[in-house]
Amino acid sequence: MSENAYSASPPALIAGTRQIEQISRLANEMISEFITDVSSTSGWPGHDDSYAKQMLPQEKEQREGSVKTGSSLSEAIVSIGDGTLTNLKSVLGTQNGVLDAIHDSSINSGDTNSGSHNGKH
């Protein structure tokens, strides 16, 4: 095979896309559950005593930072799936275009059986 050859395995891309979609769905479920769980901890430092007044800003910053990081990670995983799906569509489109061109060439050559062009170029 040539070093510049273009090759892809649509069945492998389809299988990979399905796996990434499952991972994306799980990631979204996990981050939703995490947000719910971490939100329920916001009152742990208290509300109006001196400890609460000292800890609430730090707790809020850490909680929001954790939610933002988790959400970003989930979005990245979903983006990988979207990119893989786009790649799959491109591969299938290219493959179908090439197959159509081969078919059209066979029809235009007048010989669809042996692949010979009967001297026509």
Overview of this structure, please?
The protein has 121 residues and is an all-alpha fold. It has a domain at 19-71. The protein has helices at residues 10-39, 50-109. α1 packs antiparallel against α2 (50-109). The chain is rod-shaped, with a radius of gyration of 28 Å. It starts with 9 loop residues before the first helix and ends in a 12-residue tail after the last helix. Residues 105-121 have a biased composition (Polar residues).
Comma- or semicolon-separated keywords:
121 residues; mainly alpha; 2 helices; rod-shaped
Briefly characterize the structure.
This protein has 121 residues and is an all-alpha fold. It has helices spanning 10-39, 50-109.
Give the uncertain stretches in residue-range form.
none
- State the shape: rod-shaped
Instruction: Compute the average pLDDT.
Output: 83
What profile does the largest beta sheet have? none
Distance between the termini: 25 Å
Tally of DSSP β-strands: 0
Global structural class: mainly alpha
Region (Disordered): 102-121
Biased composition (Polar residues): 105-121
